[in-house]
Design a protein that fits this description.
The structure is a homodimer. By secondary structure, chain A is mainly α. The first copy, chain A, has one domain: Orthogonal Bundle (Arc Repressor Mutant, subunit A). Helices cover about 60% and strands about 5% of the residues of chain A. Chain A is built from six helices and two strands; from the N terminus they run H-H-H-H-E-E-H-H. A two-stranded antiparallel ribbon of chain A has the order 1-2. In chain A, a hairpin with a 7-residue loop joins strand 1 and strand 2. In chain A, helix 2 crosses helix 5. The radius of gyration of chain A is 19 Å and the shape is globular. Chains A and B meet through helix 1, helix 2, helix 3, helix 5 and helix 6 of A and helix 1, helix 2, helix 3, helix 5 and helix 6 of B. Chain A binds a DNA duplex through helix 4. Chains A, B: Keywords: DNA-binding, Transcription, Transcription regulation. Chains A, B: One of its GO terms (molecular function) is DNA-binding transcription factor activity. Chains A, B: It comes from Alteromonas lipolytica. Chains A, B: This is HTH marR-type domain-containing protein. Chains A, B: InterPro entries: HTH_MarR-typ, MarR/SlyA-like, Tscrpt_reg_MarR-type_CS, WH-like_DNA-bd_sf, WH_DNA-bd_sf.
DNA sequence: TATTGTTATACTCTATAACTATA
DNA sequence: TATAGTTATAGAGTATAACAATA
């Protein structure tokens, strides 16, 4: 019964395979780093803030291809967890700059120590050459390209 | 200023690149097929239903790796749009089977006609060999593998 | 006038738990 | 007892529009 499902061309569609891969890595990541309570996006945001402590919210939102309004919510969640702090920019009173707290640095460090192993485990079906190829192809796809 | 953002290892992480790719194709798909009002997932669900009109909701949910409760909501949205119908199974009074309406078939047809062009446009940075390679690698990653 | 961040609003997707009808 | 589907609840993520403060 379960085996009689017809898939048609489902497996040929990038949209479907990318979505499946993204859901899988989301689950894998949150399970692997369960103690931190962070999602892949929250980790990425925390990581970029730690590298750019003087950057304002709009710039951070741009980096993560997210609207200002939605991105403010993401930052609010990180702030509620005590992982970042926000304060007014010294040079522009409209802007806020975020910085990672000591607790945030600790969480970040734990993920950075484990992330390579986590990603290798996630891509356990691939050998090293395939792993590098997949990452390179994803980067290439994600590069901005001319509108058709 | 915008250019001084430090990315660190962000571009090395599968989690970040898969998430970016999935967001990009979601935007591209919904823009390309704006007149249908469907998301990639809704299209995939509609497509699988059209191929498997006698399959119940639990089986459909399994195909799409979604919990029964959440999947019921997805079907409810398709039903509200008049693209599918649900009726009780003849063989199991607990179960429901979904089928695509005439309107649903029309929407599905429009997407299926354009999907190859849409996916080629989305992967405009890749040549044919790279495109096939990317899809093959995604399929391989998405294959179930042993727990470590 | 334009920009930064916020608030309000809305929709999709995800999950868990408890419920009902049936098997 | 177990299963199919629903409802209730919660949270993350996404987006648009309107607003106050500032540039």
């Amino acid at each position: 019964m379960e085996n009689s499902i017809k898939w048609g061309r489902t497996r040929d569609f990038f949209a479907a395979q990318l979505r499946a891969a993204q859901m899988n890595i989301y689950s894998h990541f949150t399970e692997w780093f369960d103690d931190t309570g962070l999602s892949p996006k929250q980790f990425a945001v925390l990581y970029v803030i730690s590298l750019n402590p003087e950057v304002n919210q709009r710039q951070l939102a741009n980096v993560h291809s997210t609207e200002r309004a939605a991105f403010g919510e993401t930052l609010a969640r990180l702030e509620e967890k005590g992982l970042i702090e926000r304060k007014a920019s010294k040079t522009d009173k409209r802007a806020k700059v975020a910085s990672v707290t000591a607790k945030g640095e600790d969480v970040l460090k734990r993920i950075l120590i484990g992330i390579d192993e986590q990603e290798r485990a996630f891509t356990a079906n691939l050998n090293d050459a395939e792993r590098h190829m997949l990452l390179a192809l994803l980067l290439k796809v994600n590069m901005p390209h001319r509108e058709s």
